Amino acid sequence: MADFRWNYLPDNADEIGRLTVEHVELVAASVAITILIAVPLAILVKARELPYQIFLNLSAIGYTIPSLALLAVLVPFVGIGPEPVIIALVVYSMLTVLQNTVVGLRGVPPAALDAARGMGMSSWQIVTRVELPLALPSIMTGIRLATVTAVGIATIGVLVAGGGLGELIFTKGIQRGLDITPIVVGAAVATLLAIVLDLMLQGIEWLAKPWVRRGRRAAA
To answer: Dihedrals φ, ψ of 16, to 5°?
Structure first.
C-alpha cells in the first residue's frame, strides 16, 4: 500500500459522496422493482408447481447471463445510463427474491392457515395478515442477498455510463494506469455500503416483527 495516497479521501470527499449516492440509487431502484415483481408473482405461483418452476428456471437463466453481455444486449434497446444497469440488476435479483419468497410462503404452518379460515378471513386477508408476516424472515433473506449482490454488480454500470462507485474503480483507477488509490477507495466504499445496507435491512425486518419483540419481553 506504499502507493496509496491518504489525502485522496479528503481531497475527493464530495465526488466520493456523489458516486456513493448514485450507487445507492441504482441498488435501491433495482431491489424495489424486483420486490414489486417477485413477491406478487410468488404469491400467485406458490401453490402451482409448474408455473413456479417455469418462472424459477427463467430467473435462473437470467442469473447465469454474464453481466457485460447482458448490458451489451440492453444498451441498443434502452440506451446508456442508469436504465440498463437497473434492468440488469433486476434480472440478477429475481431468482433470489422469488425463490426465498415462495419457500417462506410454503413454510407457513397449515394450522395457522386453518385458524385464519376459521376466523372468516378472506384469501387476501390470509395472504397479507398471516402468510406474508410468517414468511417475512425468508423473504427478507432473499432481499438482503439480492441487495448485497446488486451492490457488487452495480460497479460495472460505469461501462454504460450508469454512474456509481465503478467510476472510481474503472475510470479513475484502472483506465488511468492502474492508480491503486481510487481502486481501493471504490472497493472499500462498496464493501462498506453492502454491510450498511444489510444491517439496515436487518433492522427493517426487526421493526416489521413486533410480535417477536413482545414475545421476548414477555419471556424476560
So the answer is: -60, -40
Confidence band for 216, pLDDT divided at 50, 70 and 90: low
Beta strands in 102-202 (DSSP E): none
CB atoms within 10 A of CB 157: 28
- The full set of domain ranges for the chain reads 20-208
Max intra-chain CA distance, the chain: 70
Position 173 confidence tier, pLDDT thresholds 50, 70, 90: confident
In whole angstroms, what is the distance from residue 201 CA to residue 214 CA? 20
pLDDT number for residue 39: 97
For residue 139, CA distances in Å to 1, 2, 32, 48, 111 come to: 41, 44, 13, 19, 21
Q: Which residues contact 148 (CB under 8 A, 6 or more apart)?
A: 194, 197, 198
Chain CA centroid to CA 189, Å: 17
DSSP assignment of 68-86 equals HHHHHHHHHHH-SSHHHHH
Whether 214 shows a pLDDT value over 60: the answer reads no
Q: Which fold has domain 20-208?
A: MetI-like fold (1.10.3720)
Instruction: Return the amino acid letter for 116.
Output: A
Are the CB atoms for 183 and 169 separated by under 8 Å?
A: yes
pTM: 0.91
Rounded to 5 degrees, what are φ and ψ at 108? -65, 130
Amino acid at 158: V
